[in-house]
């Protein structure tokens, strides 16, 4: 196969920049720079010198060395100003031919917005009080061959913002803030979990079985083993094996993959945290969750109230706890705790214009369909919704008071699911029956039904302690705390269709 050479036509601005690139090389300079030792940055300079008077700064002449990308440039004769941007923000630079000399000033005159430069100088203030670096040395570092988007508009095409995230981070202060705050949120979660006695672990991304959640997978193939495999859709079963092994309190934060649609709240690859605690239960997971969210709110953001997707969310406790059947009864007056036949339940669906697919023809699935239509979007304040039907909860212990239901909850905030938790099923015989029922659903057309994991059944036969377990959508959690409406705003590189 012949190599394909990709060619494109340069714009007029790009041609001018490439001519400047050539000029730099003719001067014996590397247009793409080398190591440059900095002594300060925009944040440190502002924190250290903002309160010092103009006169004192001129007397002190505090020397700094900084580097960054040119974001604006204003020149008049033999002097000029520019703003350079680093990791923390921007700082103004004053440069004069009298201070840096003719050759370096010529480099400044030829520079373009988007170029990356180094500046030696001392900290001062202008007559208007703007903190500035008075340059004594100008160093060219990197020539930008493409112009940045227009200053006041940036990337106005939303798709291009996410596709060219590197430009979005340059031009969009909000995007950069989210990029830096997300790791702080995750670090807060890790510190919290560690403080509760949990141990962070790693489990396989590639698996030969479809287990742990109701979702369609991405499929791949292991060539050496000639084995079809899946990218994991959940973290659950490997972590519960560790409970069998005696680790007692484990969690993992990792990527999971679901071959499903995309919308403002879903991305095919996303980050989950799952945690399992021996000798705990559903109530323990509720307490852990409420405490974790409130810890993040206090430690990272210093506030408890957030505006998310048009709703004011108050994370102060105690959070509401309601059963699925109670919530449905409140909205529809239908009491699904009462005994009823499948035909009666299907008749209720017909009366309420709820479509039921073949694999959903059970009372448990019908209860869930009523919940999704009448209740889900109304759960705005943090709400633990518990008591899910057994048909939709294959890995959960039955409710000892009513075995039609399980000891499971989902956390809803702003009408969206944020977490899913169980009192974990540890009876191997019951678990095998649940897996077998999943295979029956798969035969009826449920593409999200689980496989049978016989190794997990074997692990349970060695004895898994009573336990509580929970899974969190980390991306959605970050959306809430950063008050972002779209999941693409909190994932640096969301899944996108390639450009033509």
Terminal residue distance: 22 Å
Strand order of the largest sheet: 6-10-11-20-19-18-15-14
Tell me what portion of residues adopts beta-strand conformation.
Answer: 25-35%
> Low-confidence stretches at least 5 residues in length (pLDDT < 50)?
none
Oligomer: single chain
Structural category: alpha+beta
**What is the radius of gyration computed over CA atoms, rounded to a whole number of angstroms?**
29 Å
Task: Kindly provide the name of the CATH class of the largest domain.
Answer: Alpha Beta
CATH level-3 fold name of the largest domain? BirA Bifunctional Protein, domain 2
Shape: elongated
Helix run count: 16
Largest sheet: 8 strands, mixed
Give helix % range. Answer: 25-40%
Question: What is the count of β-strands?
Answer: 20
Please name the fourth-level CATH homologous superfamily of the largest domain.
Bira Bifunctional Protein, Domain 2
What value does the average pLDDT take?
94
Provide keyphrases for this structure.
alpha+beta; BirA Bifunctional Protein, domain 2; 8-stranded mixed β-sheet; 16 helices; 5-stranded mixed barrel; OB fold (Dihydrolipoamide Acetyltransferase, E2P); 34% helix
């Amino acid at each position: 196969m012949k190599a394909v050479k990709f060619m494109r036509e340069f714009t007029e601005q790009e041609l001018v920049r490439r001519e400047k690139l050539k000029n730099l090389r003719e001067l014996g300079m590397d247009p793409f720079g080398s190591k440059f030792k900095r002594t300060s940055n925009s944040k440190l300079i502002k924190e250290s010198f903002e309160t010092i008077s103009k006169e004192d700064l001129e007397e002190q002449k505090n020397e700094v060395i900084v580097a960054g990308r040119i974001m604006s440039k204003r020149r008049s004769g033999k002097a000029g100003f520019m703003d350079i941007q680093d990791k923390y923000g921007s700082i103004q630079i004053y440069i004069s031919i009298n201070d840096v000399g003719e050759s370096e000033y010529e480099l400044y005159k030829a520079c373009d917005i988007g170029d990356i430069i180094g500046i030696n100088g001392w900290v001062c203030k202008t007559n208007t009080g703007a903190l500035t670096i008075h340059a004594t040395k100008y160093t060219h570092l990197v020539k930008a061959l493409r112009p940045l988007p227009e200053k006041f508009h940036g990337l106005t095409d939303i798709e291009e913002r996410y596709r060219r995230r590197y430009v979005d981070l340059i031009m969009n202060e909000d995007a950069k803030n989210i990029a830096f705050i997300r790791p702080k949120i995750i670090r807060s979660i890790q510190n919290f979990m560690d403080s509760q006695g949990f141990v962070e672990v790693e489990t396989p991304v590639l698996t030969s079985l479809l287990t742990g959640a109701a979702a369609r997978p991405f499929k791949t193939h292991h060539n050496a083993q000639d084995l079809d495999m899946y990218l994991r859709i959940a973290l659950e079963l490997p972590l519960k094996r560790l409970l069998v092994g005696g680790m007692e309190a484990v969690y993992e934060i990792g990527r999971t993959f679901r071959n499903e649609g995309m919308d403002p709240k879903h991305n095919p690859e996303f980050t989950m945290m799952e945690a399992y605690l021996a000798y705990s239960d559903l109530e323990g997971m509720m307490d852990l969750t409420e405490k974790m969210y409130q810890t993040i709110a206090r430690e990272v953001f210093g506030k408890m109230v957030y505006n998310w997707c048009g709703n004011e969310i108050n994370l102060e406790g105690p959070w509401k706890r309601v059963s699925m059947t109670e919530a449905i009864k409140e909205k529809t007056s239908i009491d699904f705790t009462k005994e009823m036949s499948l035909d009666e339940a299907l008749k209720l669906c017909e009366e309420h214009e709820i479509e039921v697919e073949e694999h959903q023809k059970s009372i448990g699935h019908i209860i869930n369909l009523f919940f999704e239509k009448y209740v889900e979007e109304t759960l705005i304040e943090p709400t633990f919704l518990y008591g899910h039907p057994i048909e939709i909860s294959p890995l959960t212990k039955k409710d000892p008071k009513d075995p039609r239901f399980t000891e499971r909850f989902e956390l809803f905030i702003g009408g969206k699911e944020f977490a899913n938790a169980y009192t974990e099923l540890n009876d191997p015989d019951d678990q095998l029956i649940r897996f077998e029922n999943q295979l029956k659903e798969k035969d009826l057309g449920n593409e999200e039904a689980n496989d049978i994991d016989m190794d997990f059944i074997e692990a349970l036969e060695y004895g898994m302690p009573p336990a509580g377990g929970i899974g969190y959508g980390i991306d959605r959690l970050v959306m809430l705390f950063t008050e972002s409406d779209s999941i693409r705003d909190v994932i640096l590189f969301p899944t996108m269709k390639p450009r033509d």
